[in-house]
Amino acid sequence: MALELWFAVATRVALALSSVGSYLQDDDQLSSPLTSYDRLQEGIYLFQHGIDPYSGGTFRHSPLALSLFSTVIPLSRVPSKLIWTLTDAVGAWALVNIWRARSNTARSTRDLRVAAIYLINPYIFLPCLALSTSTFETTLQLLVLMFASRGQSSASLLALAVLAHLSLPNLLLLPPILLLLLSDPLSHLASPRPFPKKHRKSLPLAAEFIVFFAALTLASSLTAGGWGWMRNTWGAGFMLPDLTPNPGLWWYFFTEMFDHFRPFFLMVFSMHLLIYVAPLCIKFQHDPLYAHFLMLGVLGTFKPYPTLSDAGLFLSLIALFPEIYPYLRYPIVTTLVHLHAFLMLPLFHHLWIGTGTGNANFFYAITLLFGLANGGAFLDCVWAGLRVAIGEEKDGWAVVQE
User: Fold this and answer.
1) Whether the Cβ atoms of residue 359 and residue 402 lie closer than 8 Å to each other
2) Is there a contact between 128 and 12 (Cβ–Cβ < 8 Å)?
3) Alpha carbon of 263 to those of 91, 240, 266: distances in Å?
């Protein structure tokens, strides 16, 4: 397995060192205002020359990224490409370890397939070639799950705290992670049972996460020289100040929004993400890893500034749950809709931004289709996760959805 994985990584390195990345770096589908490599470079330049990068309206990366890339990690072109590729390889390694914890094996014949699904997923490797910092968020997501699956609570909660600092909507992943730390990553979809009452045990874990998060917040404020960074980073997800087109559902809606309606709908869109947490954690309390997987599908569809890597992570994690495959209702339809959206997104974006022969409706129409593909995959996985418990159909009986 190691030989094939290194071959895949070597191929990715060759692609990264080629000129392909220069054509992808400014693509709005691969980088958002919160994950853009160019904006990161601009912020570091200002920071190193004694200018507050958060005094303007373009730099929206976390102070953690600012301090890391201005001191420890070089941001020159070739080292950056190697670092991004290595980060993706670490993500593939973490995904394989999650699968091993899920299947309760030290090694299996499926390891290579799980890693390959991640490494060759275009939603994953194209943002990596574009040097989008969403690559680091994706790998952190997988490390959070890997540590939690191994029962390493402190490492998992620290990684989640870092992840939440980079992208605040990831705070919604805390409940399923706590459930996972209090149980196990094994598949229990076929035998649902109430979660054992361990509420008191969850309080120290939640307190530990709060300590990590508060410490990182203090460190970020010391780095940025104040608290103003919060408005430009965390506040961007609530106020949506930058309406740069992206594959998400927010930007066009608020472009057309009258100003006096804007605060109300910002509140509605922000609160909308919250309504999924409790139902998914309650319904899949017997399998918190699956609940976490579904929450990633929600974030990949409805977060304010998504990129293709958000949907790519959700789709890659389907490899961890082979038991649901026989019960997926419309896998071919969902795959074809995703393929159609994947091919049309760059085309319609070019017609609008590149040649000027289209307009914003062209691109927004295909982002709606992309959202439909993500939503279809999410609903199909919810159905399949519930359907596993019923088992095979018997003669004279049929399973229907009311």
Assistant:
1) no
2) yes
3) 37, 10, 5
| Prediction pTM value | 0.92
- Report the number of secondary-structure helices (H) and strands (E) in the chain: 20, 0
Distance CA 104, CA 86 (A): 27
Per-residue confidence of the chain (402 residues) as pLDDT tens digits?
A: 566 667 777 777 788 777 777 778 888 889 999 999 889 988 988 888 888 898 887 889 999 888 888 877 767 778 888 889 899 989 999 999 999 999 988 888 888 889 888 988 999 989 998 889 999 999 999 999 999 999 999 999 999 999 999 999 999 999 999 999 998 899 888 888 877 766 778 899 999 999 999 999 999 999 888 888 998 899 888 898 888 899 999 999 898 888 889 999 999 998 999 999 999 999 999 999 999 999 999 999 999 999 999 999 999 999 999 999 999 999 999 999 999 999 999 999 888 888 888 788 888 999 999 999 999 999 999 999 998 988 776 655 666 654
Give every CB contact of residue 349 below 8 A, 6+ residues apart in sequence.
27, 28, 29, 245, 363
Rounded CA-CA distance 239/303 in Å is 13
Contact status, residue 287 vs residue 185, Cβ threshold 8 Å: no
Which token pair is 344?
A: 């049309």
How does DSSP assign 180-240, residue by residue?
HHHS-SS--TTS--PPP--HHHHHHHHHHHHHHHHHHHHHHHHHHTSSTHHHHTHHHHHH-
Rounded CA separation 83/69 (Å): 11
In which residue are the tokens 């109300």 written?
Answer: 264
